[in-house]
Structure of 2,4-dienoyl-CoA reductase:
Amino acid sequence: MSFPHLLKPLDLGFTQLKNRVLMGSMHTGLEEEKGGFEKLAAFYRERAAGGVGLIVTGGISPNLRGRLAPHASQLSFPWQVKRHRIVTDAVHGAGGKICMQILHAGRYGYHPFSLAPSALKAPITPFKPSAMSARQIRSTIKDYATSAKLARKAGYDGVEVMGSEGYLINQFICSRTNKRQDEWGGSFENRSRFPLEIVRAIRAAVGSDFIIIFRLSMLDLVEEGSSWDEVVALAKGLEEAGVTIINTGIGWHEARIPTIATSVPRGAFAWVTERLKQEVHIPLIATNRINTPEIAEQILASGQADMVSMARPFLADPDFVNKAAAGQSELINTCIGCNQACLDHTFKMKRATCLVNPRACYETEINFPKTSQPKKIAVMGAGPAGMAFSIYAASRGHNVVLFEAKGEVGGQFNLARKIPGKEEFDETIRYFNNQMRQTGVELRLNTRLDASVLNDEDFDEVVIAAGVVPRAVKLPGFDSPRVVNYQQVLNGEVRVGQKVALIGAGGIGFDMAHYLGEKDSTTLDPKRWRDQWGIDDAYEARGGLKAPIKEPAERTIYLLQRKTTPMGKGLGKTTGWIHRTVAKMHGVVQMNGVSYESFDEQGLHIRVNEETKVLDVNTVILCAGQESNRSLVAEMEATGKPVHLIGGVDVAAELDAKRAIRQGAELAMRI
């Protein structure tokens, strides 16, 4: 497939972008690391060389109080310019363009010095901000202009003003967080004065030949959010004030509606960009869950937007655009929207990376140079760990033979992709399959690796990536055919009744609750998905919210755990709340502090708080963790050949593809 709209240049008058692809802003954590700007330069250089039309950096504060965290980056002084020049020189040397995002955290600042329009604490930080004085507001506007002027001096091609996601500017715009009674609050005219003054000040400071992107919150998804008429009025005001491009912002960080997780339909919010496109004359950028060139081309070709923003897809594959241009979209390592290594890391103050691409943000540390001593390596198990090791080791010049006992590759990903909202996992399996062909990995399906093969074929080393097996629970009655494990259910080996108890409330337990509770995936049906979460695409209410439409429950489901800690506490930091909410949508009964006693014709006998109960269920599904599949490890070690364990066979924690793929990459780098 060709992508004429995606690859078409965009003329901005004083400059031209080579295509319609924006690499959206992502905070990597490198901004604060010692020597981080050199690593950041390598990160952005690869993306620029990979063909992206315009890059936007992670958020940089215009002043001290606007920082996201105490030691977060800011650009306020001339002496700070030098390190930014390292990044811009790298991007320009690779033929790219780059804008710096200016972000003031406002009440989202994770420190006690935060400022906001009003002294209202955000639900996602422990710190209550101070209300800004009129003098502080004026000073902050000047700080934005100073930061933009310094960005130009540092070689940036423009700036993006972060006016969405619930940060400071968004806090001024919305009556939800702006309770002021002066010229900066009250009427919409007063509430919108702050962003307009900022843009005017920046334009005056940088001149007419400098890109200004404004990230406008087009859909707040919170109570007391902006009305559609206010969004339109502000967009027109921004155009008049000198903005070059308007980027789409969706949802506040405190919104209780998912906006970028894997369960969000692809291109789910392009409709709101299209709606605004009828109102302004400057280019508009569509964003959120655009992760393939096909969906990007569709959005542009249909006239919904003038550009598309993709952030995490460039963590997954820096060569996204070049591969699309070469007609090789099947070779793109697709972002699956899992958040596990990017946003989850960011919110834990760790360096961001990518589950499907462990090199992301480690470009100076993880590389796969050709080996001077090629080896013949046997790999057991074609799950994520085994496939990752195989392609990286083969790319270095090793002769890799991958053995898989089943008739398909993918391992646990073949189970995960059957969960509603996790259909993206198909893409990773497709990518690995194609990469194995590209790198020359010899794949032997339906073939078990044993010691005789190692010796007969003269392998030098063996890598065991045999994964995990479900942990069994031995209690009276648990030998019943109605007590099954999650793998049997997802593989279609057993029939599940209408009344179900799930033993184990980790990630697998919540996934099974979703699998059993949702008849058809709403991720594949955008209208149903919007109805399920209460998104008003008619935009009749503030914030674009409406009452969610509850679908009838498919089954009676009990989700049980031994621990007394809150249910789902160990789930992903940025996605756990989604899984918990979906379980409630499906009417799942959640119980913690449960002791399991037996199962019989009456049901599952349990004890909770010293009280004995019998749950009327006809199927019990074990989701109580895994054990390493080490059945052949001793046999392999007995051959005397070097044996390496990676993935679940090494550590059988919660299913952890992030660790498995990274282990495979790191072993391939040093073997």
Notes: The chain has three domains: 10-252+264-347, 376-469+627-670, 472-519+554-624. The chain has a mean pLDDT of 96. The longest helix spans residues 134-153.
